[in-house]
């Protein structure tokens, strides 16, 4: 499939809001969506963050309960999705809680491609559960479709620098899965799904890239005065910031759009991306260093332990000297 003919689908999903259900239920739903996508000529289907986990509230899970949700990248759920990809010929991006070989757990997103290729991104800003580790690198890779894909999960997209770095690494399509967590975290409570549906068109225009966004929401819940289901839980944006497809007011299983990659070179954002002047941007790094130094000073002022030498000096000689820690 040529790049100009690549058709992408953003697939929203609904959480039951109840307890934990077996991953096999989610895999069956994903396989059904992939079969439908194949009939419509879709090349890549973008599912939400942590879509393989059917549990709306994670923060209060015990260590044993949370660890039971996690599985390795070659575990049964991802392997079953990969089998569905091979059967349909449609690539699929799915989210899970990954148990790494060293036992750590990450909020990860895996893109399974036809032919058995898999690419994984670990969320950089993870807050869903106290036992989730944060990833430490960006994820950008080439595809047979001629587009270069970057992945940022949920809160990763909140910082402008993350999207810009992904674009500077050559990404022309940003996959931005999301999920609304029922959590005691203030970060989660202040994160309406609608925020990303407003911010991502700006990110796309700034960087001259396509963006595919899909979200998992709790069925029947409310956020302020707006029903979550009425917000854009699936969105595809072009490199000029124009919305190609969205789920506003729709009941379809997914939304889709064809990516015309000629728009990338024509976009204002991509042209200005090539005219950046990195020598001017030093204050960005220096400001971060200053903030960290200030944070350290505040910790010390609140009673942190530091080595300290104290001396009492007379007029003519040193009379007392001692060390305090």
From TrEMBL:
Keyword Hydrolase included in the entry's annotation: yes
GO MF annotation, one: hydrolase activity, acting on carbon-nitrogen (but not peptide) bonds, in linear amides
Annotated source species: Paraburkholderia atlantica
Record's protein name: Putative amidohydrolase
InterPro entries xref list: Aliph_Amidase/BUP, C-N_Hydrolase, C-N_Hydrolase_sf
Domain CN hydrolase span(s) in chain numbering: 6-261
rRNA processing is among the record's keywords: no
Keyword vocabulary terms for this entry: Hydrolase
